[in-house]
Specification:
It comes from Alicyclobacillus cycloheptanicus. The protein is mostly helical and 130 residues long. It is built from four helices and four strands, in the order ββαααββα. The two termini are 38 Å apart.
């Protein structure tokens, strides 16, 4: 097992899956249940309302949404800023427009790399001669 420092509290622990210790995982799970229960009962709440009523930090709520743990399909008033342009979004790190832009840029970069390497779309890797 790998030994690591907890990202949240700094304690040393045996890292199994996540980058936080078991105690912080339990705290996050409790916060998740508080937020989820509040959102089920208050479908029109904003993210500020959730923070105020549950006491869970906004960064943790956003992290839960970005990780896919908290899904907002029934909560239309919860938004946070896109990491690229700052526009409101309800899932992931980027808004829909920035996601499309990033996807297009990655496709163009991949095509450019294939052209530079002289490969076609059917090649599956690189061949090196010894």
């Amino acid at each position: 097992m790998a030994i690591a420092n907890c990202k949240r509290c700094g304690k040393i622990y045996n890292r199994v899956r996540r980058d936080i210790c078991p105690q912080c995982i339990a705290e996050e799970d409790e916060a998740f249940h508080l937020v989820r229960t509040y959102l089920r009962e208050n479908r029109d709440a904003t993210i500020e309302d959730v923070v105020e009523e549950t006491g869970v930090p906004m960064e943790l709520i956003i992290s839960m949404i970005q990780d896919g743990r908290l899904i907002l399909r029934d909560n239309p008033n919860i938004f946070y800023a896109c990491e690229h342009c700052g526009q409101p979004t309800q899932s992931g790190r980027f808004c829909a427009a920035c996601s499309r832009e990033l996807s297009t840029a990655l496709q163009k970069a991949g095509e450019g790399l294939r052209q530079r390497m002289g490969g076609d779309k059917t090649s599956r890797g690189y061949f090196s001669r010894s």
